[in-house]
Amino acid sequence: MLKNAVASLAGFLVLMALFGCEEKQEGLGRYGMLDEQTPEYTTVAFLHSVYEDDNLDVAISLSSEKLKRILKRYHTNRNVQRHLLSLKYDDVVITPQSGARVGRTEFAETASITVFLSGTYDGDKIEDLRSVELIKENGEWKVSEIHPDKYL
């Protein structure tokens, strides 16, 4: 009886160890809790791809047709940072500012998200804002335009 209990416990621990090793996908936004169906999630995922990924594949998939063509012409993440966003970072924290918006986005066809970017480039701390315009295509949010903050 004791042997069966020890064998069952050992089997359970092996299974837990195997399932515990599964890599979890890191969430986006503050505390990693942005809902994937929101324009904020699309905005953060797009910018995360431009600043953190090795290529532009995710950013291209989250872009409108017009922006896709533009991104493909720049070829690299650094070129997009330099020419499209006019803002380069070595490391960056991306925070969507959506506090002033009230209501649900599930019925909206367009959205404008202000994003606070904070990070470093060549040892200098850089903080800036960008306004990201999104449209809904086939039920999914797509980035259509990026503007510098009009108040700075």
What features would you describe in this structure?
The protein has 152 residues and is α+β, with helices and mostly antiparallel strands. Helix content is 37%, strand content 28%. It contains five helices and four strands, in the order H-H-H-H-H-E-E-E-E. The protein has helices at residues 2-20, 39-52, 57-61, 65-74, 77-84; strands spanning 91-97, 110-121, 124-137, 140-148. The protein has a four-stranded antiparallel β-sheet with strand order 1-2-3-4, covered by helices on one side. A hairpin with a 2-residue loop joins strand 3 (124-137) and strand 4 (140-148). The longest helix has 19 residues, at 2-20. The N and C termini lie far apart (74 Å).
Low-confidence sequence ranges: 9-25, 29-33
Largest sheet: 4 strands, antiparallel
**Count of separate DSSP helical elements:** 5
Structural class determined from secondary elements: alpha+beta
Query: Secondary-structure element order, as H and E?
Result: HHHHHEEEE
N-to-C terminal Cα separation, in Å? 74 Å
- What number is the mean pLDDT? 78
Percent helix:
25-40%
Radius of gyration over all CA atoms, rounded: 21 Å
Tally of extended strands?
Answer: 4
* Major sheet strand order: 1-2-3-4
Name the beta content range: 25-35%
Q: Judging from the principal axes of the Cα atoms, what is the shape? A: globular
